[in-house]
Design goal:
2 domains; 8 strands; five-stranded mixed beta sheet; alpha/beta; Pyruvate Kinase, Chain: A, domain 1
């Protein structure tokens, strides 16, 4: 991955060059499908003050629009007077920007030959857009397909499901992706049963919603992702998780899916 550490970058390249260099780095990281984090003085005034400046709000918003996978606070949350408020403020700005459909890429499949993983990812995003799916559910063991799907910036939430810790942790940095650990499965029916129950519990979908699913088949052989399916969520009697029990990121993903 790539870290755009703007403090050191400004010293090396000059302050006037920083905005353009930041955009180029993010653009290249997106092109090569590498996670990119933008950091340093995102909400610097909140080290002392409870509210950011308008320039800082615009800076955070533009970092999202540029294509950052993640934004990072430094002194604002490490030693500032209002750490939680700084995090909440950044969350609100990001949420508002990501409600704007202009940041989601148009899916263009009129391009050169694609390998199977790229074709699956592009087709999943296109299908989700055409049927207005609430989520793209990816059963994964490596996270590759999830990264490819994220690179298309779909409006549907990306849900990565795996029983392995390593890809689970790595995918936390990928744009638009909510990760969940599930139990190992040997059939697609077992996999979908877990996925459906989880999505209903976390209120990310409601009965009747459509979801696009990517997975490897045959499932029992641990095949690489090679298929796309469309499911309509059925009505199931599941115990919902309260809002307080949901991680902040899950709450945001749920809100985005329902908007």
């Amino acid at each position: 991955g790539v870290m755009v550490a703007r403090g050191d970058l400004a010293i090396e390249a000059g302050q006037a060059q920083l905005p353009l260099i930041q955009k180029r780095i993010i653009e290249r990281a997106n092109y090569y499908r590498k996670p990119v984090i933008t950091a340093t003085q995102m909400l610097d005034s909140m080290i002392e003050n409870p509210r950011p400046t308008r320039a800082e709000i615009t800076d955070v918003a533009n970092a999202v629009i540029d294509g950052s996978d993640a934004l990072m606070l430094s002194a604002e949350s490490a030693s500032g007077k209002h750490p939680f408020l700084a995090i909440q403020t950044m969350h609100e700005i990001i949420s508002e920007v990501e409600r704007n459909s202009d940041i989601y890429y148009d899916i263009n499949l009129e391009q050169e030959y694609l390998e199977i993983p790229e074709a699956i990812a592009a087709s999943a995003c296109l299908t989700a857009m055409k049927i207005n799916a609430k989520a793209i559910v990816c059963f994964t063991t490596t996270g590759k397909t999830v990264s490819l799907i994220s690179s298309y910036r779909p409006k549907a939430s990306i849900i990565a499901l795996t029983h392995l810790i390593e890809p689970l942790n790595r995918l936390e940095l990928i744009w638009g992706t909510q990760t969940f650990r599930i139990q190992p499965y040997s059939t697609s029916e077992q996999a979908m049963s877990q996925a459906e129950e989880l999505l209903l519990k976390t209120k990310m979908v409601v009965p009747g919603d459509r979801v696009v699913v990517t997975l490897g088949s045959p499932v029992a052989q641990g095949s690489k992702t090679n298929s796309i399916r469309v499911y309509s969520v059925s009505r199931r009697n599941v115990e919902e998780v309260s809002e307080e029990e949901l991680p902040l990121r899950t709450r945001f993903s749920r809100d985005r899916a329902l908007s």
